[in-house]
Amino acid sequence: MIMKKNYGASHDPFVVSSKRIELSPYLNKYYTKNIVLGISAKRFYPLSTEVDPTASYWNLKKNVMLYDVPEKPLEISGPDSLILLENIFTRNIYDLKINRARYVISCNHDGGVMMDGVLIRLTTKKFWYIHADGDFETWLLAHSKGLRVKIKDPKSWVVQIQGPKALKVLKECVPELNIKNFKYFNCQILNFNGQKFLVSRTGWTGELGFEVYSNGPKDDHLGLWDYIMKKGKAYKIKTAGLDSMGIRRIEAGILDYGTDMNRFNNPFEVGLGAYIDLSKDYFIGRDSLLKSSKKTKLFGITSENFIPFGGSEIYYKNKMVGRTTVGAFSPYLNKGIGYVLFNHNSNWVEKTLSIKGKENNFYDCKIVNLPFYDELKKLPRGIN
After folding, report:
1. What distance in Å separates the CA atoms of residue 130 and residue 197, rounded to the nearest whole number?
2. In order of start, what are the domains of the chain with their CATH numbers?
3. pLDDT in tens, 254-291
């Protein structure tokens, strides 16, 4: 019988100083003495609280959740901002419309993934890039020499409101908003009880949802939190650590930079080839990617008797052929799931392999394509 440990339990906690790590302005809303904080983008975030992650997961699936997330927005502006972004990112940026967002990847000169995130176009010459873990600001600054561009940290903090009832909560918060016109990956400045915030129809759960970006330290963050919770009460809104979000993002096939990929992986081998436009005249890493293999090495893994954890060894015919990057128990699928990065490409899908546990026991596992379900992303798009 499979032991249903939670996503947060797969992380090893230890004491760390907060001197150089930013504390969330929302921390007091969920802090308990037994909280486990993670670190991403030099920010603390609630990895696990005393709230049952399985209960939070199901509330995410059935109702709506409010999450404090460590995503870090950077602002890129100026007459040459578009030139810089076209050089940095592997997709075209020039055709990104104002008040629209786009998932984009940056590569190094060897074609390895430097960063992934969501780029928002605020005006013709002003963008926000909401990125994952890593010092991407330095990378931008290094490649902006000679360009008329300004790069700054707006000190914005992000909350995600996710779940099938998320847009109903948004309508309660902003009654004047035309929800039907607020499409997937649309962005807009909205008024929350007298405070104006940038909002995007995006998220990190594979569910319907939106994100709210503060403007900086002067905002009333706690007031915003209380307002969202008040307006969402009728829709059973809850808050918890990101362990429940972590389970759902794995199910949705969403990758986490630093966990599932890094600068030594090219986008094709981790299944992100759809976000690489080699027809562009230039972007950093293009020449290397033209020569690289376009085959995927990252796949999903399921097990009826074992929950994968990061670094689990995968065997085929008594030979170690790859390692898992992440794993969790999926309440929806009722089995252990995760991602495996193979040492080499092969026809792995639908094959039964073996996964090695911490006590050197072996368990059968099946290789599948990502995501585990909702391949057409009907859930986040709001399509029934």
Report:
1. 15
2. 11-293 (3.30.1360.120), 295-384 (2.40.30.110)
3. 999 999 999 999 999 999 999 999 999 999 999 999 99
